[in-house]
Each structure stands twice: as structure tokens, then as C-alpha cells.
Amino acid sequence: MWYFISPKVVFGEDALDYLSEVKGKRALVVTDKVVRELAAERVAEKLREAGLDIEFYDEVEAEPSTSSVARGLEVARRLQPDLIVAVGGGSCIDTAKAIWALYENPELSIEDIAPLAELKLREKARLIAVPTTSGTGSEATWAAVITDPAEHRKMELAHHELVPDIAVVDPSLAKTMPPKLTAATGMDVLAHAIEAYVSQWANDFTDGLALKAIELVFRYLPRAYRSPDDMEAREKMHNAATIAGLAFSNSMIGVAHALAHSIGGLFKIPHGEAVGMCLPYTIEYDLPEAEDRLEQIAHHLRLSYTSRREAGLKLADEARRLLSEMGLPATLAERGVAESELEENMDKLVRLAMSSGGTTINPRIPSEEDYRKLFRYIYEGRRVDF
Ligand SMILES: [Zn+2]
């Protein structure tokens, strides 16, 4: 028995208008200071039209830490909202999920938010997610990534009840993303979709979503990067992010995310940039166990190749081409990490990657030695040959 879990997805032009009809008394809007100006005030206006009282918690940090959650939780406990509305990128939505879970379950601590926990959600509030970046797909997923600052460790919180009730996917909110953010978040979408498609838990319900998201990224991400006002490209990428989120939330992410969470936490590299950097190497690494699936992606993209192996390698090249077209780093060295820094942190990097959820569901399960090699290859920019 298996489940496909999805929020109600409101999408397309004017999707935000949906919020003027939601039911509720008090809404806590979880956002950051920049997004508050750019988008969250617009969201709040719609909620006021629906008759709700609004309070903002606008102190979410990028790559949010446990203290971002704790401060927001205090606001929630005082306000007692019946609606939590996350407005922003993955950082804001993930923070809102954690606040929500702890607000509903005062006896739990953040480490307790795990797949098999008894979470009682929706007894006090519902969660609406309004993404303003086209990337993490968090509006559609049951995961939240929160950094433990003491350990420089990214905690992967997950529970099927954490899927928001409603995702409002309005492309007008994505058009303020600067090109570098468009590029990095777009690579995250690609990684979600490819990892969902090759995952051991890939299934008939997620395959079509993953392939569609991959197709949309290759077609529209370069356009959205080059021409920020290209609203067709913005809308397609905004949809692709949620579609890829639905795919990986119902199958799983893999080794690119395990590697990226490790290097992101330790070297402070934003998630999309880290995962985009790792992706070509993990496609090559997965090839021995996922030739069929990777060839199907290459076929869907109409790449030309003469063997399955070549199809996979071409797909990795296409991911590298996207990175270079958009000026994103393809190696840790290029990103400014010193070799000594990598070696000093190697044991910790490997330990964190081994404990990531993506490790065991990936089509090829890495050993500690594999991870050591992968980190070095990503540092140097070597093609994976093992
Ligand atoms: Zn991601």
C-alpha cells in the first residue's frame, strides 16, 4: 500500500485572489523582511479582505536555523492563529512547517518531527504555502530542512502530515527573483525531478510529474534567467517547482541532496547552488544502477545517443551546460572552498551525507568511501569514473 499526498494547488495568473476567500479568524504570516515588502504585504491584503486578523513573523533567516523556528513559535503561542500562511522561498515555508508542528504539539521538540512520530496537526490551524521562488517545492512536500547552528548540520525534518493544506502558486510572485537566485533555485527543481525519477521509490504516480518538470526546466529556465520579465518562462518554472515538489515528496530525493545538505551546512553554500553543483556528478554516479531510468529522461528530452550509458552521460553534460550558461559554480574549488578546508571537514561531511534520507533510497547506495571520492571529485571537477 502506498499513498500520493498533495496539497490543494491553486495556480496561474491571479492565483493569489484565492486568499480573499479563505475561512479563518487569525492568520500568522511567516516570512522574511525582504519578502514582506515584495510579496507578503500583498498576501496579507488578500487575507484581510477575507476578514482575517493578521500578524507577521518576518524574522526567518536564509537557510533557517532552530532559533528562527523558536522565535516564530513564541509568536504563534501568543497569537493562537487558526491559519499559518508561509510566504517566501523554502526557508520561510520550512520554518512555517516547523512552527506549525510545534505549535500543535507543545510536548514535542524539533528533533521529534520525524516520519514515524505521532503528529497531531490541523487541530489548531491549517497551513497555506505561497512560494515566491521557483525552487524548493516545499509548498508541495512533507519535508522541512532546518539548520542546527551548533553543529552546522542540516536537519531533514519529515512527516506526511507536514504537507501544506493549500499551495498558492502565483507566477507574479516569482518575477522579482534576481537572475542568480532564478538560476540556483531552478537547478534545485531539476535535481528534485531527476532524483525523484531515479529513486528506488519512484512510482507510476510520480514518474509523469518528474519527467514534465525536467522538460520544463530545460526549456524555460534559461529564458527565465536571461529575461526576468518573461512571464511565460516565469509561470512555467513556478509550476515546474511545485510539480517537482509533488514528485519527490511522493518518491524521494537522492545523493545530490545528501551531498548538498552536507556541503551547504558546513561551507554555507545556498541550497540550490549546492545541489546544482552536485547533480552532474551524481547522475554519473547513479549510471551503473539507473541506466534505464536515466536513458528514459534523455529520450524524453530528445538527446541524441547511441547507448544507454552515453544517454546518461549526455544528461550529466546537459546539467553542466545549464550551470555554465547561468554562471553557477560547477566545482567546490570554483565556489571558493579551500582544499585544506575540504580535507579537514571530510569525516564530518561523509558522516552527514551517510545519515541523509536520500542515501538509502538512491538507486546506487554510496559507501563512506564512495562519498569521500564524490566530495573530492566535486571539489576538482572530475567526471565520476567509479
Ligand atoms: Zn532541493
Description:
Strands 1-8-5-4-2-3 form a 6-stranded parallel beta sheet, with helices on both faces. The relative contact order is 0.11. Helix 7 runs antiparallel to helix 8. It folds into 2 domains: 166 residues, Rossmann fold (3-Layer(aba) Sandwich), CATH 3.40.50; 202 residues, Dehydroquinate synthase-like, alpha domain (Up-down Bundle). It is built from 12 helices and 8 strands. The structure holds zinc ion (ZN). Zinc ion binds next to helix 4 and helix 8.
Q: Please state the structural category.
A: alpha/beta
Residue windows where pLDDT falls under 50 for at least 5 positions: none
- Proportion of residues in β-strands: 5-15%
CATH architecture tag of the largest domain = Up-down Bundle
- Numbering strands along the chain, what is their spatial order in the largest sheet? 1-8-5-4-2-3
Give the CA-based shape. globular
How far apart, in Å, are the first and last alpha carbons?
A: 36 Å
Structural Rg: 20 Å
Question: Which kinds of small molecule does this entry bind, naming each only once?
Answer: zinc ion
Helix content: 40-55%
Report on the biggest sheet: 6 strands, parallel
Q: In the CATH hierarchy, what is the superfamily of the largest domain?
A: Dehydroquinate synthase-like - alpha domain
Q: Count of DSSP E strands?
A: 8
**The CATH topology of the largest domain, please?**
Dehydroquinate synthase-like, alpha domain
Give the number of helices. 12
The CATH class of the largest domain, by name, is Mainly Alpha
Question: Which sequence of SSEs, written as H and E, runs from N to C?
Answer: EEHEHEHEEEEHHHHHHHHH
Mean pLDDT: 96
How many structural domains does the protein architecture include?
2
